[in-house]
Amino acid sequence: MTRGGWTFGLAMLVIVLAGFLAPHVLKNPFYFFAGYVILQYVVIATGWNILGGYAGYINFGAAGFFGAGAYASAFLFNAFGIPLWGSLIAACVIGAGLGLLMGYLTLRIQGVYFAIATLGLVIILETIIHNIPALGGARGMVVYGPPPPGWAAGPPQYMFVLMLLIAVASVSLARWMQLSWVGRGLRAVRASEDAAECSGVPTLRLKLLACAVSGAVLAAAGAPYPFYTSFVEPVTAFSLIIGLNAIAMPLIGGTRSWQGPVIGALLLATTQQIATITISSELNILFVGVVLIAFVALAPNGLIGLVRRKGTEARL
Amino acid sequence: MITRRNFNRLAAAAASGLAMPAVLTGRAFGQDKPIRFGASISLTGALAGTKNGQIGYELWRDDVNAAGGLLGRPVELVLLDDQSTASNIPAIYSALVDVEKCDVLFGPYGASLTAPVMPFIKQRDLFMIGMFPLAGNDQAKHDKFFHSAAWGPNSGTDWARGFFDLAKSVGVKKLAILANDLEFSKNAAVGGAKVAEEYGMEIVFNQSYPPNTSDFSTILRNISAANPDAVFIGSYPADSTAIIHSVREIGVPDSVKLFGGAMIGPQYGSLLSSLGPELNGLVNCHLFSPEPTMQSAEIKSFFDRYVPRAEKEGVDPLGFYIPPFYYVAGQLAAAAITGAGSLDQAAMAQWLHANKVDTIVGPATFNEIGDWTTRRVLMVQIQNVEGNDLAQFREAGRQVIIDPPELKSGDLIHPYNKARAG
């Protein structure tokens, strides 16, 4: 393992330990409710960036994978009593399968046409859920999860730690993909798919792999959602807001590396959480919109791109 | 001789002496702090049409404070925007309780936003007044949850029973059901089908449609082909408008005696004035209508103050459907606090379970899961509408109450085509 790898591993370990210790230091449960939502978006942004950032395939269907993960875990728990960890693994498998299916069906098209096709996935899945009574249809499903394990201070603290572990695993996976042969291949695809193909890069296989991994991570973000809200219904689970945030967060942070979506998600989701309880009016939507426009206009390659550009300028 | 140093010591001692009672009796002083009522409201997002409920809360707060507050303390509202998104609800209610230190909670609007807060209030054992969640406490069965809306007991099935009572009374045998694929209307359709079955009616058409449907001509033709005696519809404002337009263009068979039931939209001023006479004959659910059987000095005073504020803020200028029940939520909480003599959540719930509360929409009593013991959902028939003037809907005789019998203000005109012709 490289020196960077050891540093990264150590940092992740410290973050996990801090997450386990946090409930003993922070007594106010609100931080854990808000922290869960912020970490959920870290996972979503990271999952989206594997296909949208590394390979350059803009995916508007993030909400489809998120909703599929949410419904998979809600159904498995309600119908068979499968605990959250089991549901999480099942959601990842379903998300990966859905990603592969989407890849086979849509990867022949590129650019805006691919984006529209992925948006269609959300609508198809939402319509399917609406028409399956076993999944609650339009009425939704109530999910009263089991009480948290003894080591957790309460339900919000438990959900926070769980989402932190998912976030750490997702970011680690995204970092590995970026630095490995997979990431190099996807970068080649993003730069020029034809040139990559001519150079012997297995473009279709790599794109399918990216679709599957991205789908699995996005579904993993959705799996704990029914246990967090105790309720899941199609309009919220497949909300366009999830898809828009999944794109906006990596754009703010930068799409070329694993750090970008993490920074973007932490910034935007934290801003949204703070705005919800401080501004709390129509103005908070405007505020978030203005922040987004400002980033896109002033830092088109995200914050990381902006920092690197400033560094290059300083050296010159 | 008093030196400057001694004078300063004396002054400090005197100041300490004067301040000491306030320091030692911090509890008594603290009792003058406002009682904080927390709620999430949908200022943005799909449910933003319900934000006029905020005026109901604010009018109630102003009235209570003008009358000296509760337990000698002023009342303060803490309202946070949930953006109509269920995933925001747990964090918002934690913020209201853990950060804003609210003493009493009001629920978010509707069933899908209320469901995420139920485990939270049950786990913390908190008192809450729910805002319009149909059957919102049927699963959680929290003993400190109370509805502000008069859905009545077993509301998941029964809330629109009035429509079927009317249908039975005019001899309906064959029923068509049409519902939007969204939570409220789908619930209405499922409940309606159960009641129809109970009344021995044959369901000859039962279909739901995607939420963004805007053309109902084919669906209406299919309904006509089934030749029903009544058509029960669960719809939201945009599709309610489209359905009414399609009825104008396609028409319905003369066999249809009742048309409507659970259409959301014709309760709001904007839709009433835009559709005007096209709405004549519709039999639809409502919670308040300005008919003589429902009028009182209190509700008149409410609307006298609501209307100018609503016009200024650009929200529903009629406000019959939602705002009075936000005021009622405040009245219920206030009665519980005053009755219990404290902010003890268990004592408040116990008092509200045991006593009747006179609200601006009538007396309220509750069962063990906080439903109004008597269903008081109205079935009104829109009659005598001429032109598109909004003011006519503030007069009696336009939204005539047909059911329940104790509030009836006029007779049902049927069949639907006759009622449509005015």
UniProtKB/TrEMBL annotation, chain A:
Record Pfam families: BPD_transp_2
Keyword hit for Repeat: no
Residue ranges of coiled coil: none
GO terms assigned for molecular function: branched-chain amino acid transmembrane transporter activity
Stated name of the protein: Branched-chain amino acid ABC transporter permease
Membrane topology: Multi-pass membrane protein
Major location category of this protein: membrane
Organism of this sequence: Borborobacter arsenicus
Transmembrane segments: 7-26, 32-51, 58-78, 84-105, 112-138, 158-177, 208-228, 234-253, 260-279, 285-307
Keyword annotations: Cell membrane, Membrane, Transmembrane, Transmembrane helix
Subcellular localization(s) per the UniProt record: Cell membrane
Cellular component GO terms, alphabetical: plasma membrane
From TrEMBL, chain B:
Keyword field contains Membrane: no
Domain Leucine-binding protein: 34-383
Protein name per its UniProtKB record: Branched-chain amino acid ABC transporter substrate-binding protein
GO biological process: one example: amino acid transport
InterPro entries, sorted: BCAA_transport (IPR051010), Leu-bd (IPR028081), Peripla_BP_I (IPR028082), TAT_signal (IPR006311)
Family the entry assigns: Belongs to the leucine-binding protein family.
Keywords (A to Z) from UniProt: Amino-acid transport, Signal, Transport
Organism of this sequence: Borborobacter arsenicus
